[in-house]
Write a structure and sequence with these properties.
Blueprint (H helix, E strand, L loop, with lengths): L17 E5 L8 E6 L9 E3 L12 H9 L3 E6 L7
Parallel strand pairs: 3-4
Antiparallel strand pairs: 1-2, 2-4
């Protein structure tokens, strides 16, 4: 199997995350997402990290920071069952 992505030897520096709200016409509110990415790098792999039932994207900050430091872009949706709401 061909290896399409090799993580860097030295971790990337993190970038401040960006919180966005995507329009969701069939609901009374949009879909809240957070995008996390490394400061450097190009053509990085993307992960979508979905919290569990009644969870929150806030509980996974250490894990997300670790993934981003190894060159992944991480998108975190906040579902309607989140403790954030």
């Amino acid at each position: 199997a061909q290896n399409l992505y090799t993580p860097p030897q030295d971790p990337f520096r993190l970038v401040v995350s960006k919180d966005l709200t995507l329009p969701y016409p069939d609901r009374d509110r949009g879909l809240s997402i957070r995008i996390n990415w490394p400061q450097d790098g190009r053509n990085l792999p993307v992960l979508i990290w979905s919290h569990g039932l009644f969870g929150s994207q806030e509980a996974y900050r250490p894990l997300i920071d670790a993934l981003v430091s190894y060159g992944y872009v991480v998108i975190q949706p906040t579902h309607s069952d989140s403790k954030k709401y």
